[in-house]
Amino acid sequence: MFYQKAAKYWENVPSTVDGVLGGFGYITDIDIEGSKEFLNEIFSVNKPPARNRALDCGAGIGRVSKNLLLPYFDKVDLVEQDEKFISTAKQLIGDNCKLGTLYQTGLHLFKPQERYDVIWCQWVLGHLHDYDLINFLERCRDALNKNGIIVVKENVSSNELEYDDVDSSVTRPSNLMLKIFDDANLKVIKTKIQTGFPDDIYPVYMFALKSKLEK
């Protein structure tokens, strides 16, 4: 029911930047700029990821793929469960030889078919139950190339789990996020808080995660 309700909610959201950002379309440039800074920091670490292939999870209309990932990577795949969003993403990105496969499915069901240097998850993981999120992150972890990174960019609540009945999602506190990462055998190598957002929305954290299993 949790997943069906969320799918129903997004079916009725217009496939525009303002729609996918819940009426906060005006923050998109600030958001992308913050993500670019974080990605540049990731590429500056010791043993950085390659730039061959990235995956955009919960890609919506392709906002992050077009403005952030495609300029950096040779190939970008998208996962998005809403059919009209996928259709809009194709139009928004246009005829770009770097655009890879578009998978229409929910993240709780998604199994990566490729290996990735960076897997980007933004404003979507609140739609997964904790156990499904751990399993999803484990599947992503196993799909990373050498030195690969999972980036999680999400709203973070102050100290407890908060449920949104409208779009059927949760907002997790940072300590729960860290526990979930740990349970999925992922270690945090970098964290940053997005700046420049309005005061009346949740703080947005960026986490760069590496597999604990990588030798």
Notable characteristics:
two-stranded antiparallel sheet; single chain; 215 residues; alpha/beta; globular
Question: What does the secondary structure layout of this molecule look like, with pairings?
Answer:
Layout: H1 2-11, H2 17-20, H3 28-43, E1 53-57, H4 63-69, E2 75-79, H5 83-93, E3 99-103, E4 116-122, H6 130-142, E5 144-155, E6 162-164, E7 169-171, H7 174-183, E8 186-193, E9 204-211
Parallel strand pairs: 1-2, 1-4, 2-3, 4-5
Antiparallel strand pairs: 5-9, 6-7, 8-9
Could you characterize what this model shows?
The structure is a single chain. The chain is α/β, with parallel strands linked by helices. It is 33% helix and 26% strand. The chain contains seven helices and nine strands. It has helices spanning 2-11, 17-20, 28-43, 63-69, 83-93, 130-142, 174-183; strands spanning 53-57, 75-79, 99-103, 116-122, 144-155, 162-164, 169-171, 186-193, 204-211. A seven-stranded mixed sheet has the order 3-2-1-4-5-9-8, sandwiched between helices. It has a two-stranded antiparallel ribbon with strand order 6-7. The protein is globular and about 45 Å long.
